[in-house]
Specification:
The protein has a nine-stranded mixed β-sheet, with no helix packed on it. Strand 22 and strand 23 form a beta hairpin. It is 4% helix and 39% strand. With 203 residues, it is mainly beta. The protein contains one helix and 23 strands. It has one domain: UDP N-Acetylglucosamine Acyltransferase, domain 1.
């Protein structure tokens, strides 16, 4: 089987797509908009799916490394999700980054499902393996936030500016903030409207 790259070229502005390996699958919806986005795949049997009406600006998506190809990884960005600038990195075989619908990512976001280098115990067992990052639907990620390996952000949550997510959370409609991030407020909703627009529309 050959690599399968499917995308609607007129919606890709200054893209760079590079892959080295076999049986990789890249699917970009024709209704999505990618500007200055770079996609690198080093390895085989990897999948990247970017669904309808997504907006990616200045995003780097990278699976593997030139000197360390990896296999059987998956990145899915669901519909109506937007990025202003971000790095998404997978560095270990079998890992994944799953991003839900209608998520909003600010500037300078780091999503990294690997520590890049190894940490072991005294018996030589790897203790920092990266497996997955899961971001639910309708999540807002603030400027310069960092989302590390083996984490989960539930639906309708906000990650505050400059926060670092290091754990799995399971309660929807919360604000996560701090280093490491923790729940600082519950029972919230958020909107893409500016605060003044929200006020004006309610009056």
């Amino acid at each position: 089987m050959v690599n399968k790259f499917k995308y609607f070229i007129s919606r890709l502005i200054y893209p760079k797509i590079k892959q080295k390996g076999n049986n990789n699958n890249l699917e970009i919806s024709k209704n999505s908009y990618l500007r200055k986005t770079r996609i690198y795949i080093y390895g085989s049997h990897n999948t990247i799916i970017i669904k309808d009406r997504t907006y990616l600006h200045n995003v780097n998506i990278k699976i593997g490394f030139p000197d360390c190809p990896i296999n059987n990884c998956k990145i899915i960005i669901d519909k109506d999700t937007s990025f202003n600038s971000a790095n998404i990195q997978l560095g270990e075989s079998g890992s994944s980054v799953l991003i839900g619908e209608n998520c909003m990512f600010s500037f300078g976001i780091e999503i990294t499902c690997t520590d890049t280098h190894s940490i072991t115990d005294f018996e030589g067992n790897l203790i920092n393996k990266g497996e997955s990052i899961e971001i639910g639907d309708n999540v807002w990620i603030g400027k310069n936030a960092i989302i590390l390996k083996n984490t989960k952000i539930p639906n309708n949550c906000i990650v505050a500016q400059n926060s670092i997510v290091t754990n799995k959370f399971y309660k929807d409609n919360c604000i996560l903030a701090g280093i490491p991030a923790k729940i600082v407020k519950e029972n919230i909703l958020w909107s893409r409207k500016r605060p003044q627009q929200y006020i004006d529309n309610k009056e």
